[in-house]
Amino acid sequence: MKLEEKTIDYKKVLTTIYHNVVSEENKGAIATYIPELAKVDADNFGVCLLTMNNEQFGVGNWQTKFSIQSISKVLSLSLAYQIFGDEIWKRVDVEPSGTPFNSLVQLESDFGIPRNPFMNSGAMVICDMLVSHYENPKEDFLAAVRELCKSSDISYSEAVAKSEASVGYRNKALCNFIKSFGNIKNEPEEVLGFYFHMCSIEMSCQELSQVFMYLANPNFTTSTGDNVLNLSKTKRINAIMQTCGFYDESGEFSFRVGLPGKSGVGGGIVAVYPGKYCIAAWSPKLNEKGNSYRGMKFLEAFTTETEESIF
Ligand code: GLU
Q: Residues that bind substrate, according to the entry (predicted)?
């Protein structure tokens, strides 16, 4: 139901919710399965909102960089979609999986076609496409992300990429398993090297909200004056974020927050309200499903308080 447009004092809303959330217990646990991620201070908590009118509001540690992990999968998917168009859906599906992000189980019965591009398996297939396309995948991908951010101050964390590679037995199994079905074309070693780097990209909430504006602002253009995706493709990426962006808690995120978004095990969440704003939150402690405990709490309160959700 569309109510009358009202003026919202975003700064006040953000600050009030931030203090409410901080005053409550910080539940959950930091992801430690990637040893390097375990070093982060659990009390970090930041939020940044960027509106269509280019108004920016930040609270807490909104300018501190962190490991965006799976949030990067939206960026690789968008680039692959831009390059290959609808061909990509022959190799990866768009259905919520209802299984953990690193699950192998459905791949056997699905003949190596991952359920969606945000599961590790699906993201690896997308990485494989980019590895085939780019001459220097790592450099070219980073350049594309910097272009979206309109900043050159975005980089991989070699320490995080190396740390994940050193313990990435399940991801290596996934990639080799998909290769056995012929849905990975390059050498798994190369695809995994790119995948681990992609996940290691570091950004602040401020940078994340800027980077993801291409999914919120239909008029967004890069410095060359081009759209990243046309409206139909933007709709589809947002739809996949809505249905698959939060592991097997995507239904819960829709229910509580009501925005398309994506989370990562570094504790980041980015969400967009198409035509209105992009919001990024970061707090490293994760709930049982792997989503930021405080991030989800904040966003639920934010869309409830502002009455701004796509539903
Ligand atoms: N690099 C992480 C992994 O593959 C990404 C996990 C995530 O953020 O969902 O395990």
A: 70, 120, 164, 171, 195, 247, 265
CB distance 103 to ligand 1 below 6 Å: no
Residue 78 assigned as binding residue: no
Atom of ligand 1 nearest to the CA of 123: 4
Burial class of residue 236 (count of CB atoms within 10 Å of its CB; 0-12, 13-18, 19+): middle
DSSP state of 67: E
**120 appears as a binding residue in the annotation:** yes
195 is in an annotated binding site: yes
For the chain (311 residues), the mean pLDDT of every run of 10, in chain order, is 74 98 98 97 98 96 98 98 97 91 90 97 98 98 95 96 97 98 98 98 98 94 89 97 95 97 98 97 97 98 95 92
Q: Is 196 exposed, middle or buried (0-12, 13-18, 19+ CB in 10 A)?
A: buried
Q: pTM of this prediction?
A: 0.97
- Check if the beta carbon of residue 114 is closer than 8 Å to that of residue 121: yes
